Amino acid sequence: MNYQILDLNSDYLLSSFGQTTATGLAKLVDGEISHDQITRMLASEKLTSKTWWKMIKPQVRQIQQEDGVVGIDDSIAEKPFTDENEIICWHYDHAKGVTVKGINFMSALYEAQGVTLPVAFELVAKTETYLDPKTGKEKRRSLETKNERYRRMLQAVCDNQIPFRYVLNDLWFASAENMRVVKLDLKKEFIMGLKCNRKVALSEADKADGRYQRIDQLDRPEGTTLIIYLEGVSFPIQLIRQVFTNEDGFIGVRYLVTSDLTLNADQLITIYQRRWKVEEYHRSLKQNVALTKSPTRTETTQTNHFLAALWSFVKIELLKVRTKKNHYQLKSQLYLSALQQPFHELRQLQPVSLVDAPVA
Q1: CATH classification of 169-280, choosing from 3.90.350.10, 3.40.50.12500, 3.50.50.100, 3.40.980.10?
Q2: pLDDT tens string 182-198
Q3: Which pTM does this prediction carry?
């Protein structure tokens, strides 16, 4: 892998405002590197999460703290017009409630000192085909669950000796096994969302007797904590009911649970709010670093383009810290700079002007 060209390509993705191609980058650098060199870089060895850790490790070591948090979530980079393969395929989008075509990626995002960096990732590859018994159509599926990938990424974070205290994730990853692994195996704490129909016991005696009830049927005021017991989880956890308002004005209810029984309600909510960095990361990847704007066609080139986009995200995130501007302000600054040069060149060419036009 030619990392010098990969680094140059990441600058191209960050500064681009349209489709990103090998030809486009070659023209941009005016012969410094050729189209073929860029293509060979993308088509060389398929980079992995282990490779990514080697790239990002120096930046992580500069910001790491014992009270860091790791947020894990997945998202889909839609690629509706790209040929289907094992990583470009159909996935169910929970946010939209429909199946979309694209890359389903999972990320472990480390946040410390106000800096957010992806430290591990997985591309969901659907390697097995089968016939859907309902429709009779051929479909793809992965041989691994997302919860298995979740646990593998967390183990990698610990193996790489990244200090953190809390794992933050939404309700899709709040399985009993994930809770046990975080608390008992990795010796970390978690804060997770919980589905409203999840059944809980209110005491160890109730749990032993199988007396469970849905959490949305508990008569608990907002913002108060409650010790509960889950089936398959050997330790007590703390529950809080939170009412929130979305940007569109929708009022909803969120149930949060934590393994840290020392947290009060305000602390629990404040720490979980750091998970929002994952949503900002997903948006910035898609809107600011051209994740979905490359015409790559093979699994290797698509994977390596993904890593180049991750590296672009790291650059704009570190620029955010240095300049005190958010990702969108920085992107707008680049856009304005891109417009200024052709604007001034056009004025120097002195095109026809209305200044000297006769007044009717």
Answers
A1: 3.90.350.10
A2: 999 999 999 999 999 99
A3: 0.92
